[in-house]
Amino acid sequence: MSFNPTRRDVLVGGLGAGLALPLTRTARLPRWLHALNQGDNILVVLQLRGGCDGLQCVAPIKDPVYQAARVNFGIPADKGLLVDSNDSVYFHPSMADFKALYDRGDLAIVQGIGYPNPNLSHFRSEDIWATGDNAATTVNAGWLGTWRTTQYNGSFSIPMIDIEARRNDAFVGAAVPVFRSRSEFQFFVDTSTSAAGLDAVYEKALIEANSKVARTTTEPNLTFVAKALDQTVSDMGLIQMTGTSYTPKVTYPSTDATTTRLSSAFQLAASYITGGMGTRVYYMDTGGFDTHANEIASGNPVGGNMATLVQRFSSCIKAFLDDLKAYGKSSNVIVMVTSEFGRRLGQNGTNGTDHGQASLSYVAGEPVKGGLYGKYPDLSQYASRTDFNKISLPFTTDFRSLYATVIDKWLGGDHTKVLPGTFPLLGML
Q1: What does the pLDDT read at residue 35?
Q2: DSSP-assigned states of every residue in 324-358
Q3: Distance of alpha carbon 162 from alpha carbon 148, whole angstroms
Q4: Which residues make beta-bridge pairs with 334?
Q5: What b/e string do you get for 144-179 counting C-beta neighbours within 10 Å, with b at 16 or more?
Q6: Among 308, 250, 261, which residue's Cα sits nearest to residue 285?
Q7: pTM of the model
Q8: Among 11, 21, 215, 371, which one has the highest count of C-beta atoms within 10 angstroms of its own C-beta?
Q9: How confident is the model over 401-422, as pLDDT tens digits?
Q10: Nearest to 291 by CA among 49, 50, 47
Q11: Contact present, 160 and 279 (Cβ < 8 Å)
């Protein structure tokens, strides 16, 4: 028996009545139903650090300008994986997992993504993506931190988790735990004094004991501190214990140490999601995309460093989504992939590419309306040029439109209260 209520069924009978119908392992909620229950939707963000070369990921490889700009470097016409029979762009052959997601309708590709007056410094561009404001000179508030403090109306105390080595600036303005494994997450106490350093275990015990003392006082400051202590201990337990019985139901890639680390990050998120954690946002990263040299193997444009990089993130994402699907937990999870900027149209002299402007973003998952979004930058305007390494493709889709879509249509909220302005929504959610 399958469960696929129409919009009319739910509106007439009520959401609760509709969901009371029996579900099967293969049941799949219609995509529009997520808009009625955004409070359960989960966003996983993967940041590709270094500026990913979009022209080596999804590109119009038969375009004569592309071929001229990347002689002996670009993806050969007979090697690429055709994205869509109605279009003329191709995946890198090492992105077969993304091709599989696209073919089943679970991958949206956002073309020509960027922002006005781009800054090609890694740090500055990352700041701009973190804040959602290309005019900001410092990160005073990250876009996810602002969403947390102004738009999040849930009651769960850990709505966001940062699975990185250090806090991502996207979270500035809101408290977020930062760790890459359960073993890294500890109950930290003050070790700045000799007494605390000598007996941190005793200090931890005092904090835990204090949080359990019954409070009969109405003194507001004491009540606040007591509740804060209790919440801290409770949150620590949730982070350390939720999902500890999780075992992957698919094989995650582990071809090298960096791939294994990324797989571990996705598995940590999967353990919390399948374990029932109420966290709404997970953030992780992987690096290596600053490919000024040796982006390809000499004489092999589809081998070398870039092939490893694109296979790593695309295969980890597919494994993660397939794992959740096997657990029956994939209907309310999406993965958004971003990078701070793209690379130049043409290759440089060291088998690499230099910093450029427009690139690609991706949104993957069962609830996604797959397809191509935005417009691929027009290469024909460069047909008479030969200095391709000096050409940065202009953006055609503002990255704030991607954020706005995720906020308004997935996380829940009003993007104009998070971002500096109003931005047109994309149609993948």
Answers
A1: 41
A2: HHHHT--TTEEEEEEES--B-SS--TTS---B-S-
A3: 13
A4: 43
A5: bbbbbeebbeeeeebbbbbbbeebbbbbbbbebbbb
A6: 261
A7: 0.84
A8: 371
A9: 999 999 999 999 999 999 999 9
A10: 50
A11: yes
Task: Round to whole Å and give the CA distance between 67 and 77.
Answer: 9
pLDDT digits (tens, 9 = 90+) for 136-172: 888 999 999 999 999 999 989 899 999 999 999 999 9
Residues in the chain: 429
Question: Can you tell me the distance from the alpha carbon of 130 to that of 136, in angstroms, rounded to the nearest whole number?
Answer: 10
Residue 311, classified by CB atoms within 10 Å of its CB into exposed (0-12), middle (13-18) or buried (19+), is buried
> What b/e string do you get for 103-133 counting C-beta neighbours within 10 Å, with b at 16 or more?
eeebbbbbbbbbbeebbbebeebbbbbbbbb
> One-letter amino acid identity for 43?
L
Query: From CA 356, how far away is CA 9, in angstroms rounded?
Result: 49
> What does pLDDT average to over the chain?
86
Q: Are 367 and 332 in contact (CB under 8 A)?
A: yes
Backbone angles phi, psi at 58, to 5 degrees: -135, 115
Beta strand segments in 159-248, E: 160-163
